[in-house]
Amino acid sequence: MSERESMPYDVVIVGAGPAGLSAAIRIKQKSPDTSVVILEKGSEVGAHILSGAVVDPKGLDELIPDWRDQGCPMAEAPVNDNQHWILTKKGKYNLPHFLTPGFMHNKGTYTGSLGNMCRWLAQQAENLGVEIFPGFAAAEILYNDDGSVKGVVTGDMGVAKDGSHKPDYMQGMEIHGKYTLFAEGVRGHLTKQLKPKFALDADCQPQVYGIGIKELWDINPENHTTGRVIHSQGWPLSDANGGGFLYHQANGQVALGFVVWLNYSNPFLSPFEEMQRWKTHPEIRKILEGGKRVSYGARAISDGGFQSVPKLAFPGVH
Ligand SMILES: Cc1cc2nc3c(=O)[nH]c(=O)nc-3n(C[C@H](O)[C@H](O)[C@H](O)COP(=O)(O)OP(=O)(O)OC[C@H]3O[C@@H](n4cnc5c(N)ncnc54)[C@H](O)[C@@H]3O)c2cc1C
How far is CA 231 from CA 106, 131, 178, 274, in A? Predict the structure, then answer.
């Protein structure tokens, strides 16, 4: 087997989601001479991002204080109408604000595409000199002789289903870093290997998960109010926790979806089917009628809270 090529950097970041991109930007702001590379398995930044999203801009305000004036797509739809519905089979009850805790008021938040937001963050990162390699998955972790993390290996390309090498075969490359940052998102494939190896979750509670299913719709302009966000609880779920969301974003679009926490005991429950039923509720149907679904997907969500946050730094990894 031939020696793999290697590339050295000061910091290697796995994953160009909001976490990886923000970290890269912060490092470059504080230390412009530090070399930073981001590997992203999606064909482009944003391709694998799936979220609502209603975003609290607290972190962004600290990272790029003038983001609103810099063409950031998230600035297009400040949340101006926040509703929380309790659904029965045919009706709805609008929960008054004073009955909900402050964090559910969505005061000062924005709604928009997190994928577009990542594309914008990637541009900011590149302007600061961060190198981003989309289409490259970190497939394996490399270790130094002392056991610390040395970097990662990108996946081989041009491998046939049966494992044989196709004519365009390209061996993966070693990306070495003084520090490696794993920002793969929920249940990352490499992070799952690091957890037991470095006993990262020895002193925290187990993580718990939900599944979030999301669709993006172009809806009838008459039904659209930019900046309106709606959360729902109740029907159709009866023996599981979760609920729906429907965010009126810029350009006449709504991002809607359904989250089901994975602690349900009914083996016949299908989160996907529950979401499709939810869309038939008269109040939801009313908004979607005459509209067209443009994309959809699903993704795991972690929900363990602070007590489930594992140790985040260990040799070679920050
Ligand atoms: C349906 C749904 C709705 C949500 N709604 C909201 C909301 O309204 N508000 C909110 O604040 N949050 C919401 N969230 C949560 C939010 O999306 C996440 O908290 C956020 O995306 C986490 O960012 P991240 O950068 O950690 O990970 P991710 O956004 O998951 O990004 C990880 C990136 O790393 C890449 N990657 C992973 N593994 C590798 C690898 N081995 N090599 C190379 N690249 C890799 C992925 O392709 C991806 O681009 C929602 C989530 C879902 C699923």
Answer: 11, 38, 44, 15
